[in-house]
Amino acid sequence: MNLLESGEMYLETIHVLSRGGAAVVRSVDVSEYMGVSKPSVSRAVGLLKSGGYLLMAEDGALSLTEEGLEIAEKIYERHRLLTAFLTSIGVDPTVASEDACKIEHHISDESFEALKRHIQVQH
């Protein structure tokens, strides 16, 4: 299954919430964090579950499968690095984060890896 940008966003959000210390991540947490409706989250959760990216326990707790976690970590790494890069060249942190969110889903692996190498050489 080829994930759309929205699917990647949901996986990244679940990953960020679980990294942020939430004992359990539920659909309502995702809805609040992303500012989307609960029915939108329910639909996305269903698609991500059927795609093998997400598991839902009987109590509603969401967890990423190995494949879902791999994608979430990839998108999260891109977001962090792109935000840091844009901020380092003078972009307002809020704007940098918003722009990174747009770029992270569309940049090729080759371009991202080159950018990452370039940034590492600079530091």
Written account of the structure:
This protein is mainly alpha-helical and 123 residues long. It folds into two domains: 5-70, Orthogonal Bundle (Arc Repressor Mutant, subunit A), CATH 1.10.10; 74-122, Iron dependent repressor, metal binding and dimerisation domain (Diphtheria Toxin Repressor, domain 2, Orthogonal Bundle), CATH 1.10.60. The chain is 68% helix and 5% strand. The protein has six helices and two strands. It has helices at residues 5-19, 27-34, 38-50, 66-88, 93-103, 109-122, and strands spanning 54-56, 62-64. A two-stranded antiparallel sheet has the order 1-2. Helix 1 packs across helix 2. The radius of gyration is 15 Å and the shape is elongated.
Observed structural traits:
123 residues, mainly alpha, Arc Repressor Mutant, subunit A, Diphtheria Toxin Repressor, domain 2, two-stranded antiparallel ribbon, 2 strands, 68% helix
